[in-house]
Amino acid sequence: MAKKILRLAADLNSEQMAIETVEKSCILAAATLYFCAMTLLVVATSNPGKLKEMQVYLTDPSLPWELSLKPAELEIEETGTTFLENACLKASQVAKALGQWSIADDSGLSVDALNGAPGIYSARYAETDADRIARLLRELEAQPNRRAQFVCAIALARPDGSIALQTEGICAGEIVDAPRGTGGFGYDPIFYVPEAGMTFAEMPPELKHRVSHRGKAFEALLPQLEKINPEA
Ligand code: ITT
User: Is the pLDDT of residue 7 over 80?
Assistant: First the structure.
């Protein structure tokens, strides 16, 4: 009797082990299928602040993209005359150079009293973020009209360089007299959003992600991105 019980226990034990092995194999197979189904998407930026924000929008687990970063040595000249032209140029040239899907963001700050400057030249306005802010505040000294808008254009390019998607987002605000807040990057400390009652640099990242020019551009992009089949 004792032998019978022992044999039964051994059978049950090996049955349990077999079930666990099958379960583990299924999980492994599903994970393999999932990662095989992922397509590389090169984020075409050299700006770490921008990259950090773009990653947040693009790491939705339902998206079939595995993000990778543009090699630093691959520099694209921004010869376009609009944010959208420059976003398309960056996405397209990086995609073609690497033979991979690529996504690019071209963005900047347009100030009403400066006839839209620095606009597409926002990155080229001075050497560092601090110098860019200092120059903008100097140019607006004694200027009562502080209205400005941040613009963000996003473009997605196929591996052959053709443009699959493009969107734009705008956030209206004002330029404050002196920097406020420590979050974000670039011009964030001097860009005040009246509805939020704070500068971009004073906002928690989730709030900036929701109300910013980049947030709005991605809000328009993501439903279209979900419909793209990168393998087709
Ligand atoms: P990549 O072209 O490599 O993406 P970049 O910094 O040169 O990087 P842009 O040509 O689009 O990018 O220039 C955007 C400029 O506007 C740059 O100075 C940014 O710091 C600034 N900018 C863009 N989005 C911003 C944001 O959300 N907050 C603050 N500054 C921003």
Answer: no
- Helices 213-227, 48-58: axis angle to 10 degrees equals 40
Closest ligand 1 atom to Cα of 123: 18
Please tell me whether residues 147 and 221 are part of one structural domain: yes
Neighbours of 215 (CB within 10 A): 19
Which of 50, 121, 171, 216 to mutate to test ligand 1, by most ligand atoms within 8 A of the CB atom? 50
d(CA 33, CA 69): 23
Ligand 1 residue neighbourhood (C-beta within 6 Å): 45-47, 50, 78, 105-108, 122-123, 184-188, 200, 212, 214
Catalytic annotation on 188? no
Same domain assignment for residues 74 and 113: yes
**Active-site residue, from 106, 112, 131, 188:** 106
103: enclosing H helix or E strand:
strand 101-111
Please state, in angstroms and rounded to a whole number, the distance separating the CA atoms of residues 221 and 153: 10
pTM for this structure? 0.86
Dump pLDDT digits (tens) for 176-198: 999 999 999 999 999 999 999 99
Nearest CA to ligand 1 atom 17: 123
Q: Which of 104, 54, 112, 49 is nearest to 78 (CA)?
A: 104
- Residue whose CA is closest, atom 20 of ligand 1? 186
Show the domain range for 164.
Answer: 38-225
